[in-house]
Amino acid sequence: MSTAIRLRTIAKLGPANVARVAAYRLGLATGLGRVRRLKARTPHGPFFPTYDGPTRTWPARQTWRREATYFGWLSVPFDGGRPDWFLNPLTGKRVGADRPWWEISDFDEASGDIKIIWEPSRFDWVLSIAQGAASREPGEAARLEDWLGDWCRRNPPYLGPNWKCGQETSIRVMHLAMASLILIQRGVPLPGLRDLLRIHLARIMPTIGYAIGQDNNHGTSEAAALFIGGSWLHAAGDTDGARWANLGRSLLENGIARLVASDGSFSQHSLNYHRVLVDTLSMVEVWRRARDLRPFSGLLYERAAAAALWLFTLIEPSSGDGPNLGANDGARLLPLTDTGYRDFRPSVQTAMALFADRLAYDREGIWNLPLHCLGIRLPQAQAEPPRSRQFDDGGYAVLRAETAMALLRYPRFRFRPSQGDALHVDLWIDGTNVLRDAGTFSYNADRQTLDTFNGAAGHNAVQFDGRDQMPRLGRFLFGEWLQADSVAFDTGRSTAEAAVTDWRGARHHRQIALEDGRLTVRDHLAGRFSSAVLRWRLAPGDWSIVGQDVRKGAYRLSVRSEAEPVRKEIVLGRESLHYLQQHEVPVLEIEVGGPTSLVSEFTWR
Questions:
Q1: Which of 134, 349, 512, 594 is deepest in the core (most CB within 10 A)?
Q2: Using an 8 Å Cβ cutoff, are 157 and 42 in contact?
Q3: Residue 127: what pLDDT?
Q4: How does pLDDT run across 353-400, given as a tens digit for each residue?
Q5: Using CA atoms, how far apart are residues 414 and 483, in angstroms rounded to an integer?
């Protein structure tokens, strides 16, 4: 890739962010970084006092009883009654905790993808066991102490993979705090828990600049942990607590103002990372209220409410699922129910109650469990059902008609894109995702696999001359960021449109129109290219080409082109609905030999 493209991309990332990341890497490489000089003793329990509150009644949790569930789909039995903190269950290989974390690669032969090693150390089980202890289920309080003690012994401070990431460290802090609220323990933490919190915040502090430099959920999560953990330690008389809490508050205020647009769009163009954001903000606000701490700024609450509405708008109420949009690493930050990983309703309900003072869904339903567990009153008011809405700051046009939803994704990149999904269209009918996105699968993948999932081939879009929409500069970085033009949105006609021109001069203009029983997509291809492929990624099932149509039951897709297509066929593609999981899906491909216009019509009545 040319030096000019790299320099332009660095300029877009921002000199300050590039400097933060460079300083972090230099500090690790030279040993000058403060994080390499951290030392601490291993904490010892007890961590939580004996629960003496009222017996709390809610549905018994099954998660983390006899097995763990990684990324919402992979069941991993416990060996010896506890999680194996260092096992990759997909390969059977284990890593150790005998080396400082900075000597461990994210993607080495032993760990494979380090995210699978991190999964049990996110302390999701702390929440589940705390819920059981608050319900006075026999043995749950003892199990919580046993597992926390085992984790501390096997993960001595700053040794091994589970200390490698400041965000992973932050998630543990937030989960410990939420467990204390579930257990109605708002007093001073016990010495063992104070020590555990302190070594976590001490790990976050030296690399917080790197987290902020990412312009994503790393910064918001780590700021939240500093605020929550710091205020907790301050209440216990720790001299560093107030400093950490104040820094966390400041970084969170600045981060939300920068990363969340006024329409609620987040810097990470991802449905799941948006859930990570709203869950983080929900935990921060629940903690602030429980501890009677000073409120945040009006701007933060405005942006939090907008972010909650954004997520509410994109989620299908009947299933709780939504478009498989953007990067998805399997994160689910506030798992207080046994609902499926792709059910976003518990997070939406919690955030809407906290920041919009509205219920997104019914007063009766499992999505209310987080509110009950964390002591949040249910608002009296009910939000209006999701409707057609444009989020132009982020580049999303949502059309709704009866029981159908269509999404047009167009680029408004102020922050680095992680997927080549310009002008992708998602279609949902009666809660079923009929035209769909390929997802992510894995960050630890070869170039071909990365392109298959997060390149143009992984989306309902047009690919010119077999290349991607933007040149790939690295695993998580594209160059020559696209910008949409000719953007229009009309709720009266139920239409949306936008156009992009790539770095080699190929242009794609797309208009979508949604009505009851019909989605019409008009594509105009122009500029410099020799061939182009239009893809429609279909829901799994027995699709067949019948004349000019592609059919499956009541679904019918027809594509007309001004020029005779070079090729029209259904091929097998791949899709990932959960991290590290994939399966085959049918993909309709229409190849044309030059500039032309195409009309795709999808009907279901």
A1: 349
A2: yes
A3: 97
A4: 999 999 999 999 999 999 999 999 999 999 999 999 999 999 999 999
A5: 9
Distances (CA, A) of 504 to 264, 468, 470, 501, 594: 32, 11, 9, 8, 14
Bridge partners for 268 per DSSP: none
d(CA 124, CA 64): 8
Asked if residue 46 has a cis previous peptide bond (ω within 30° of 0), the answer is yes
DSSP letters spanning 503-532: TTSEEEEEEEEEETTEEEEEEEEEES-S-E
**217-235 helix and 241-259 helix, angle to the nearest 10 degrees:** 150
The count of other CB atoms within 10 Å of the CB of residue 474 is: 10
Phi and psi angles of residue 120, each rounded to the nearest 5 degrees, phi first: -75, -15
3-state secondary structure at position 459: coil
Spell out the residues 6+ positions from residue 539 whose beta carbon is closer than 8 angstroms to its own: 432, 433, 434, 435, 436, 552, 585
Dig out the tokens for 535 from the structure: 């893809």
Tokens 């010495």 locate to 191
Closest CA to 276 of 205, 218, 208, 339: 218
CB atoms within 10 A of CB 36: 16
Q: Distance of CA 188 to CAs 48, 130, 185, 289, Å?
A: 10, 18, 8, 16
Looking at this protein, which amino acid is placed at residue 377? Answer: R
Q: Residues 273, 326: contact at Cβ < 8 Å?
A: yes
Contact assessment for residue 312 and residue 52, using Cβ atoms and an 8 Å cutoff:
no
Q: Indicate the residue type of 138.
A: P
Q: Dump strand ranges (E) for 375-530.
A: 389-391, 396-401, 404-409, 425-429, 432-435, 462-464, 472-474, 477-478, 485-490, 495-501, 506-515, 518-527
The pTM of this model reads 0.96
* Backbone phi, psi, residue 506, to 5°: -85, 135
The pLDDT assigned to 109 comes to 60
Tokens 């699709």 found at: 543
- Residues 456-482, mean pLDDT to the nearest whole number: 93
